[in-house]
Design goal:
This protein has about 240 residues and is an alpha/beta fold. The protein contains 3 helices and 17 strands. This is Probable septum site-determining protein MinC.
Amino acid sequence: MTIAVRTRPSLRFRGKSFLALVLAPTVPLRDWLEDLDAVAKNSPGFFNDRPIIADVSALKPSKSELKFFLAALRMRDIRIIGLEGAAAAVLDSDMPAAVTGGRPAGDIDAPDLEAVPLPVASSSQPAPTTALLIEGSVRSGQSIIHTEGDVTILGHVASGAEIVAGGSIHIYGALRGRAIAGCTGSSKARIFCRKFEAELIAVDGLYKTADDLGSKYRGQPIQVSLDGDSIILTTLE
């Protein structure tokens, strides 16, 4: 009797987590869209090449209102990969798929096809926090995304560059690009820089653009923090 030996590797499923930008429109929608346009104008390319989810919980839109909202985003070249908070009755097949909150996932090894069905992987342990150190400057067009903890930049952050951190951001040089701290929901996160010339700053989802910030703190060593729903800038000297 001949026994066939399987040489192909077992089927493998890999879990991978991506940082998605969540847009959460509020009413009146016209005002929210104007604010969105201001961000796009002050930070060109901010929405390019990144996964974006729309949380429409606050809108509670009808089907026609949701179609209008999605069309308004398409006109601005903002592509939505998923919808959160929309009632099932207002979703159409040509709309982005409904999504719920994401969770970290690890590798899942599938057994041989002839074996038992795949188990469902789950994890109740939070991912450990780590710090990321960049020994140099971040050039224009670069995007540093580290959702597991703080990010420290020993050099400068150029105009057109972006730093996204789950924790705080420490910049030993000039901040001329965008700094987004507390991206996973940390209101205690802060931004520190030696020379403040930012295009955009954000902490725990609240943001200010260069136009909002004015010139009062420009060129100074700055700490950015939250006080309730307000972004607070203070000098370090």
